[in-house]
Amino acid sequence: MDITRIGVFTSGGDAPGMNACVRAVVRTALTYDLEVIGIRRGYAGMIEGDFVEMDGMSVSNIVQLGGTILKSARSERFRTPEGRAEAARRLREAEIDGLIGIGGDGTLRGASIFYEEYGVPLVGCPGTIDNDLFGTDETIGYDTALNTAIENIDRIRDTADAHDRLFLVEVMGRDAGFIALNSGIGGGAELVLIPETITGMDEIKKRILSLMSAQSRSSIVVVAEGDELGGAAKIADALRGDPSFARIDLRVCILGHTQRGGSPTARDRVLASRLGTAAVEALMEGHANVMVGIIHNELRLTPSRNVWQRRKTINYELLKLTEVLS
Ligand code: ATP
Hints:
Blueprint: E1 5-10, H1 18-31, E2 35-39, H2 42-48, E3 51-54, H3 81-93, E4 98-103, H4 105-118, E5 122-126, H5 142-163, E6 166-171, H6 178-186, E7 191-193, H7 201-215, E8 219-224, H8 232-240, E9 250-254, H9 266-284, E10 290-295, E11 298-303, H10 304-309, H11 316-325
Parallel strand pairs: 1-2, 1-4, 4-5, 5-10, 6-8, 6-9, 7-8
Antiparallel strand pairs: 2-3, 10-11
Helix pairs in contact: 1-9, 2-3, 5-6, 6-11
Adenosine-5'-triphosphate binds near residues 12, 75, 104, 110 and 128.
């Protein structure tokens, strides 16, 4: 079946570069004479029929904007068969015969289930700051979030240094340590704690105490939010309860949602543009239930199921580097 009218949506956590991807999808589709419908608020908007016609002008001046002009949402209703039936009905009614979804592993998981139930072809674009998707070296938004984290670590380092303080800086990434590991190296952290490795509390205490006494200066520990010890605040509580830390001026800084916002980096804009165009072309070539990604600078298609069933591993060489360089 030829595709004539596609829907594009952003879903899950927003990520800088989603707009650049939407722009690429819309402009590429128009070049191929496809009609494009923007589906607002992800699967929630799909269920409610929150659709808007897109033309070339509707994506003017957005390549540099963070967030997403289509809005994003998490939808509990889409997890239910009834919610997905309603979404399918809305798509039929609007004569949408292909979908491009920009989001994370949950989005791709929902898309696979929806495809298996209703057969609406869907090509996914990896959009999440966490970089935790199998099938692409980097996800849209990751580079911007990483740079934001490093910029903030630099600022924290200034104040930590002025007061000889120990800072625990918590970065995002859910249960993956990509942002923590790379911002730790780029920001010169003395210690990096990520979910992929287990560092016991005794080991953490030993490492911090030796760092603080040997160099008698400030230290920065980068903690991934998904670290098995429960994040920076919990680790700080445990350290404060230990008399050996009584004389250490310990502070916690949770970078939180600052990592999601802001203008996308050049790298994210280019990545998002390449993936958006590739997604439209994949859909037109008859692919369905796949995600477009870039591996070793080459465009690749990966079955959506693999994206959320397989785990992308961190580069353990980088972990070693944090130890050598601290
Ligand atoms: P991020 O990585 O930024 O959190 P995400 O796409 O993983 O993005 P989720 O909230 O996990 O974000 O998923 C987005 C939406 O996808 C969910 O709100 C839900 O509507 C849909 N979804 C996720 N998992 C399923 C599932 N098992 N069945 C049906 N729909 C799902």
